[in-house]
Amino acid sequence: MSGGVDSSVAALLLKQKGYDVVGIFMKNWDDTDENGVCTATEDFEDVVRVANQIGIPYYAVNFEKQYWDRVFSYFLEEYRAGRTPNPDVVCNKEIKFKAFLDHAMSLGADYVATGHYARTELRDGKTWMIRADDQNKDQTYFLNQLSQEQISKVMFPLGDLEKPEVREIARDHHLATANKKDSTGICFIGERNFKEFLSHYLPANRGEIRTVDGEMKGYHDGLMYYTNGQRQGLGIGGPGGPWFVCGKDVQHNILYVAPGKDHPALYSQGLIAENVNWISGEPEKKVFHCTAKFRYRQKDRPVTVHILPGNRLEIVFDELEWAITPGQAVVLYDFDTCLGGGTISTVLNQGTDASIDFVDSAPI
Amino acid sequence: MDPIYLDHAATTPIDPKVLEVMIQTYQEVIGNPSSIHSFGRQARKVIDDARHKIAKYIGARSRDIVFTSGGTEGDNMAIIGAAMAHRKSGKHIITTKIEHHGVFRTCEYLEKQGFEVDYLDVDRTGRISLDDLKSKLRDDTILVSIMYGNNEVGTIQPIREIAHLLSEHQALFHTDAVQAFGTVDMDVKDTPIDLLSMTGHKIGGPKGVGFLYIRDGVTLASFTHGGDQERKRRAGTQNVPAIAGLGKAVEQVAGHLSERISDCLLARRSLLGALDSSGINYRINGNPEHFLPQVLNLYFPGTNVETLLTRLDLEGIAVSSGSACTAGSIEPSHVLTAMFGPDAAETRSSIRISFGSGNTPERVAQAGTVIARCVHDLVESGKAGETL
C-alpha cells in the first residue's frame, strides 16, 4: 500500500471478497528535509488510516538500500550513458515484485496484490499479463519485465475497473485517500525540479548544441537534461526553428537538434532492444508481427519483431516512428496480451546526415 | 493461538487494583487540588497520599516528588532544568550513547543551545566504564545523566557507584529510571541520586503520568510557566485520578517487588528453554549479571528484524525492537549500534521480548516455540536468497 487511492481500493476489494489481507508500506527513499519532514511519513499515515478503516493489519518495510543499489544506481548509470531511463520499470522488476514479493512470501502470503491497472489470466498452464480494462490507465507498460514466476504470484484487483470507478468506491467507503491526488513523476523526485535533483548526483558538463547540418546553435547544460523529441528548455531560438532534440553525441558532448517537428532526423525505421523479457515464455516464431509501445500512454504501433541472440530484439516499424528514445522501454502486445519488452538501446536509421556521429544510431 | 503480549517494556496492561482506584477517584473526587474549598481539599488529599506512598518507597520526602506527564517530561524537566539553572557553573554535561530518546535528544537540544555534551561509550554488554566517566568529568561539568536500566537490552548501570563518585562533585546526577522502576529496588537515601524520572505505564499504572524526584536543595529552572502547582516546579492542574493510580501502582511494586522479579525470571527461563530445545541459533544482547529481569534482547543471525517482527505479529506474538521511524519502518537501534558498532549484524537481526503480569511460563514457552519456528523459516529462506 502506497498511501494512494489505488492500493487503498485494491486492499478494500480483496478484503470484501474474503481474503486475509495484510497491508504493507514500502519505504524506498528518504527525502527527509531540514525540518524533519519526509513524504514517506505522510503516505504511511494514510496507509494507517485506510488500513484501520478497512480493518486489516499494516506494517512497513524498508527497502532503501535495495532501491538505491538496484534502481537508483541504474538510473544514474543510464543518464551517464546519455540515455533516458525508466526507473518505474526497474522498480517493478527489482523492488515491488522481487524484494517486496520475497518479503511477503516469507511472511506466509499466497499472493501479492497491488493497485496497478493490469490483469492476469491463466491459460495453457501459464499466467499471462493482459491490459487493464481502462485503456487510458493501463500500466502493463511498466510491468513488462516481470517473469512468469513473479506474475503467477500477483493479483491486480483494479484490472477490471475504470479509474473513476475506483475513486467512487473509495468515496462510497469514505476511505481517507478517496480524494488524494495521484502521484506524478518519478517517485524519488516527486514534484521537485528534475534538473536540480539530477545535478546533485551527476556532474553536468556544458557543451555545444548543433543542428543536424553541423551548425553551432548554442550551449546545453549537460546532455543528461535532454531527451529525444524535447522542445522546451533548449534556450535557442532564431530562424529555422522550432528546434527539437534529435540525438546526442556522448563522446564529444554535443546535443543535436533538428528544425521543425517533422524533420527526418526525428524519425526512425526501427530499433534494437536489449535485456528482453518474455512474461509467458519466448514466442516460437523468431520473426513475427505484433504491436508495440515505445513510451507510456502511446497508441500501439504495428511492428515486425526479429528475435536476436543474447536477449536482444530488432524491431522494424510498419511506419516511421518519431523521437524513439534510447533507455526507454519497448513493450510488445498481441492484442490485449502483454508479451514482454526490453530496453531501447539503438535507434535504427535515423534520417540524418551520415557524417554526424549520433549516439546509438545505426543503419538498419 | 490467542495473541500473546510480550512487549511490557513498551507499556504494561493496567493493574486491576490501579484501575479500581482510578475509577473511584474519577467518580468521587471532583475538585481541583488547588481550590480552597472542601472539594479541593479532597483532591489535594488524594495527590498528597500518592506522593507520600511514592516518597516512602524510594526513601525520599514527599516534597521531593513532582508529578509529571511521564518519563519524557521528567527527563526534559531534569536535564533542561538543571542545565539552565546551573549554566553559570559550567556548560559541560555527560550522558551515554544508550539513553532513551527522552534523554538523548534533550541533550542534543542542549548542544544546540551552547552546552557541551559527552556521550559515554558502552561495552558489548551495554555497560559504561566508571573510569571512563571519571576521565570525562571536568570542573565545569554540571550534570551527569545515566539511565538506570536500559529499555532495549535491559543492562543495569552501576548507579550506586556513579552516585557516590559524583557526590563529591558539583555535577548533579540524573537517572532515567523509567524501565528499571518496577523490578529494581531503588533508594535515594542510600544512593545519592539528585534527580530520578519514572513513568506510571511501565509498572501497571496509567499512561500520561509519572514523577520526577528532586533531591532537597537541588534547584531546577522551570520550563512550564503558569500556576504554582507542585511547589512552583510544574505548572498546570494535576491529573488527580492518574496520580491516584500512579500511587497505587507504586504501592503494588513496593509490596510485590521480589515476586515481580521472580515471575519475570521464570518467564525468561521458559522462553530461553523453548529456544534451546528448538536448536535455533541465537545470542542474548545484554549483560549476563546486571540486567532487568523483564527485558530480553535476542540476536537471531540470518534474520531481518522487520520481516521477523511482522511475521511474529501475524502469528500473534507481540514483541518489538529499537524504534520505528515516522514512516513505520524500523531504524537500526542506537543502543545496539553503541554496543556492537555501526552496521553490526546485531543491529539488523535483534528483537526485544519483555515480560510482565499474565505471562505464565506455559504461555511464554508456547510463544518461544513459535518464535523458534519463525526464525527457522526466515533463516532458511534467507539462505536460499531471493527466490524470484
UniProtKB/TrEMBL annotation, chain B:
Domain named Aminotransferase class V: residues: 4-364
NCBIfam families: PRK02948.1
Family of the protein in this entry: Belongs to the class-V pyridoxal-phosphate-dependent aminotransferase family. NifS/IscS subfamily.
First-tier enzyme category under EC: transferase
Cofactor(s), names only, from the UniProt record: pyridoxal 5'-phosphate
Pfam families in the cross-refs: Aminotran_5
Protein name: cysteine desulfurase
